[in-house]
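Hi everyone,

Forwarding the result from last night's run.
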Amino acid sequence: MIKQSVIFLLIASIFYVFAFSQTAQTTHTTTGDKTSEDEIAKMKQEIQQLRILLKELAQVLSGEQKEKLNEMIKQLEEKIAENQSQTGESETAKIIDEVKQSIQKVKEDITQATGGIQFNGFFDVSASGYKNSPNIFILGDFELDMAKSFGENFQVASALVFADDGTRMDVGFIDFHLFGGSISARGRLFSEKGFHIQVGRFDVPFGNDWQFNSSAERISVTAPLTTGLVLDGGYNDVGLRILKSAVVYNYTIYMVKGIEKGFALGGRFVLTPFNSVSTLKRKELREFEVGVSYLYDMSQSGSPEQKVLALDFESSLGPLRLQGEYIRRDWNNVGALLKGAHLTAFLDASKFGRLPITFFSRYDYFRQAALDGRFTLDRLTLGININLYDISLLKFEYSHFFKGNDPYNGSSYYVQRVITF
């Protein structure tokens, strides 16, 4: 198994080095020219994503607005073509600045044309063996996140998902904040101090992996077993939640519809003792945080149906980041106990070099005890995440199950490409 994983990572590394060297051969020899080429490639990617966004907003924009925005994008492409014919470094830098400003202007015009709504989104394409899926290639969901602020204290946010089985709203809430700015529909919630009251549908904060629910946020391809099996893929529900963020702590309290027929109460409390105001504003990963989560799900009569507990931590030091959690789920109404844990390590090579690669490894396990017997599962995962100009992610992943039955046995391979805009 170790030999297979090493070969897999070696092949992935060679693939990337080859792609990187091919790009380098087309650039100039000076550092300034190399940077310019990288920025040009990134801007080309951004323009492609703008075209995708315009296509998705076709029913919202008027014909005149679409024509105006398409013309602006065409002008951007002409500027980039003009830049590639230039040889002077100062002229190249000037054109790059102009294109950057023009791209930002297009984004602002899209927001203005849609009544102040801010858009971002992603979609992904994955490939794996038949063991993991009946098809080698899988087109993931297309997600479009939207947010709009009303004055200084109100915000509406949503996440629309376009899938093979139709369109659904995975997130949709109204946010009232006494202080603090807007909040993201998904992912890590707090980027500054604030107090929020939200009503609607949201991803329930539980443990710490819930923050990486989407393929755009997740470094790896697969989720840890704590999310995939203990929490059945994650917990999303409808209800009310209160969020408070200070410099060295934050908490969430919620009342939601619940897993069973009834309702659920719960919350998450997090300590960030080494945090600072500047860390929050830069939206950096915490140097160290530790959290505890609890959910009490009850029937309509008030009797307990499920009780779920999670303990988690996250720590970063230079290029290294560690993330772990333990989750225990007592399924009282069926007499089952589910529990699991994971420890994941990330090594960001861009912190000490020019290669935008993150290496990751994870050990996780799952245990189930029920009336019909016990189930045990252990897994090791290794992989590489390549950041292509902050717009696209290319992931290679290998995992091996030490114990378990189909499909949870043997080795699995994954490749995933994520496009963000």
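The radius of gyration is 23 Å.

Cheers,
N.
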